[in-house]
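Lab notebook, page 48
Experiment: co-folding of the full assembly
Goal: obtain a model of how the components sit together before planning crosslinking
Operator: M.T.
Materials (sequences as entered):
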Amino acid sequence: MTGGSLSGVRRLRSGYLKGRLLGSVLVFIAVYLLNFILPRLEPGNFVSALGQQFLTHEQRQRILAMFGLNEPPWVQFVKYVEQTFLSFPPNYGVSFSHYPLSVWTVVMAYLPWTLLLIVTSQLIAWSTGILLGAWLGWRQGPRSNSLMLGVSTFMWGVPSYWLATILIFVFAIRLHFFPPALTGVEAVTSFNLAWVATVLNHAFLPILTLVILNLPAHATVMRNTMVSLKQEDFMIAAEARGLRSRTLILGHAARNALLPSVTRLALTFGDILSGAYLVEIIYSYPGMGYLTAQSVFSRDYPVLQGVFFFSALLVIVANILADIAYVFLDPRVEYVS
Amino acid sequence: MMEARSFPKRFLLFISSIASTYSGKIGLVLSISLILTAVFAPWVAPYPPRAMSGVPYSYPSLSHLLGTDDIGQDLLSQLIWATRGSLLIAISAGLLTALAGTTVGLFSGYYGGRIGEGLMRFTDVVLVLPLLPLLIVMAAYFPASIILVIGVISFLEWPQIARVIRSQTLTLKTRPFVDASKLCGMSDLEIMFKVLLPNLISLVLLYAVFAAVTAVVMESGLDFVGLGSIANLSWGVMLYFALARFAMIRGMWWWFIPPGLMIAIMGTGFILIGYEIERVTRLRV
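Observation: model returned without errors.
Model output:
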């Protein structure tokens, strides 16, 4: 156990991580190809987004030529690869509604806000959920357990934007505790304490929504692992040695119980992202979800594709990080795969 | 023993063992009442869902228990009819996911080797794709229809079942009864679907239930963004209209809260049953 992190570095080069990285590369290729194929299945739709009935035949052809959509597919593909890989910043096209800004510029303006929201809310939900789950699993009280199961089952089916709307109604409209939307951040231009305070004040409700949605599931996973861990020989031995229960939980059980929790966090990251996007829309929080809603409204196809592409990229990165964490947490990983 | 009993008797026995726990009872009551509501919607609902049956924006009263919307449609009737639309999405997405996932999982687990490995690499790919952004991009390019929604959701959800079924098949196929079936002259297909599948069906159901609930939640998300199919009246569509007509800002919470609550209640009912089925069958094996 003591040399865990050191040998972990060595294991990073082992077969397990290689296999997982190969998987990530495949995901990337799939998303990359999908992004190429989608707008080219129905080029007409892509063009009509710009002005439906007002365009003449020549104008349509000109727009098709402008986006290179009338060339043979393989020429288009070579160009696509060139633009996205060989130039920096990568060229994913030009936004319709933010013209002449590129998709890259637009997405990069919204991405940090989403990261702030997701990282903060998941850190809070995950750490609190783990502590709560470990405690519940240790006590194994029948009433608190069925309450936990009930709450997490219920939360599975709660649409995130529905909960967000109710929280706005209660805390912002009725009680005036927090502002209902992320407006006014632009008013404070420089990065100082006032800016941080404004952002926190405005981001509080969106973060709270995501914490409420995700905490019960994290706690349940941790609880279930804890319950099965308690019967393991090494736990019984540790208990027999007369260790304090806090040392038992945090020092012996928690480390092992973290594994399923990390796996689950990575596997459900896509769902967490989807939930967060809808929450952003409700709170007018200027992240990727808000950008999505705007782009749907203005039929900004290039930006929509950019959002999908970078969302998939976020999920891929999250999974690679989880795999690395997994290698460090579980000394057995290299033998399994 | 089990073969001696007739199907209805076995089914009743199964239901009663699910109902033996508290959460099983809750799950059964919730799910059955939702299914009954969906089936008997025309008889249960006080008004046709799209008929102007009252004064617009009326508050809850005895004639309109949940009030009316902006064009005077009865909201309770809409809620009842939307049970149909949402259950349709849930059940078809659940079935499609289970079908695809189980087939791929069984084949790749039973035959193993290169094909199995390749299939699993593919599921690795699909498993992590973010559902909602993909759904939005697809719905933006193709006209919104529930078939598209069900298709995309099933496409992104089946790998989960496939992985679980594959890993279970890998261990199950080494059991003696599989060899015995081979000696009896059963074909590979028969072994997969008649011998292995009955042992895995509880897991299939559990994951199908999760897929079904996710489908309804995601469909409501798509409606919310404005890319849903309004032709299919679902709880998501109701939420979309409630938001678009500022129900909460008008203080008309009885318009906005029930559809979301119904989605969560459906999720609770289905998932509780999923857990119970898993528990019951695990005890028997």
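Interpretation: Chain A touches chain B through 58 residues (CB under 8 Å).
Next step: discuss with group before ordering constructs.
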